[in-house]
Amino acid sequence: MEINKNQDNTDFMKETIKKRPLNKRKLMQRTLITAAMAVIFGLVACFTFLLLEPVISKKLYPEEEPDKVVFVEETEENEILPEDMIADDSQMQPEPTEAPALEDEQIAQVLSEMELGVEDYISLLDSVGEIAWKVSQSIVTVVGVTADVGWLDNEHESEGAVSGVVVADNGRELLILANTKSIDEADSLKVAFADGEEYEASIKKKDNNTGLAVLFIPKSKINSDTLEMAQAVTLGTSGGNLAGNPIIALGRPVGTEGSLCYGNITSTGNTIRLPDSNYKYMTTDIYGSSSASGVLVNLQGQVIGIIDMSYNSSDMKNLVSAIGISELKRLVESLSNDKNIPYFGIYGVDVTQEANEELGVPFGAYITEIDMDSPAMDAGIQSGDVITKLNETEINNYQELVKELLIEEPERELAIELMRQGPDGYTEMKLEAVLGLKQE
């Protein structure tokens, strides 16, 4: 077979595939884009987690709501309930025969046999001291810390202190009642217990009218010994005529921490008139500090007053005085439950039996004054009106009106029935009002 010599010989040709040269600029761009996307993805993931984490946690581990704080309204010591005045014939006891009158000599003999000695006096003081010690375990010192800047621009802290008292335990927090007027500008609050332990505290709710505030400390931050020691006190009653009753002043009655004084109530006839509230003001024969704070305690170990010297007259500025606890219970209850306090803007008094019989003033809440631009003024209520009904509740006196207002919520509409005096006597009127919010 003859080979074609003219055929091309291609054995010497080889194909080589070259790699594309590395473009460093494009590689850098892609790297930066990838890194930026990773950062954005991470930020979105973090933001989403922060938003959803509380919701998911509540679903998986639902947090128990704090227990509602409720204070029992006790019957006044000298008050007789209507049901106590009703008795069946079977319950009626025969009248006891009159005891023979004692002669003066017999009375003197009985008194001489009852004469107390020094040992009896010491025993009596020990008994009262034991009551005071038990309540003092629930008395705390509230310290307000304020950061100040001196004239050389150097910062320093100043502290003010008042006494407070443990009033409730809602299951999650320990609640402390204190008058914070003197530490109102504090940047932070610390609470020192009777065992020396200190904890940071926060205000749950405050009433600007009285200056009273309820502070709280999470129970998880308080050691078990302090929790066991600082039990909530029992709130007694300041109703009735307590003049002459022995009392114990605890907290800072003489201006120093942990001071204690014994004395008697001298008067309960004064009244503190504030918007939407009236408070009994009790005076004592205890000479203390003009900046005293703390509580008054009866011999049953019950708190019957919160010391407040700001309402004393100039001639008795050092006599320890207090706001009665009976009128404060509803307010303290609302503050403890973090409830917004409604504002109506009225001042008033009860209608006495004499005013009803002699002047024909109907029973109810007699309005003596109204705040300017208040919900009461907007509703058309005037001084001299007598409110007899609030929504579906009959109002027989001013204190009943105050209680009903505290139950309501801000922005709630009220249906009011009142009696207004005119040329022909009192006529009935019906008004509507919308409650405001009392500023803290």
UniProtKB/TrEMBL annotation:
Residue intervals of the PDZ domain: 348-422
Membrane spanning residue stretches: 32-52
Family matches, as InterPro entries: PDZ, PDZ_sf, Peptidase_S1_PA, Peptidase_S1_PA_chymotrypsin, Peptidase_S1C
Disulfide bond keyword on record: no
Keyword vocabulary terms for this entry: Hydrolase, Membrane, Protease, Transmembrane, Transmembrane helix
UniProt GO BP: proteolysis
Claim: Hydrolase is one of the keywords in the record: yes
Name of this chain's protein: Serine protease
Organism: Parablautia muri
Species lineage: Bacteria, Bacillati, Bacillota, Clostridia, Lachnospirales
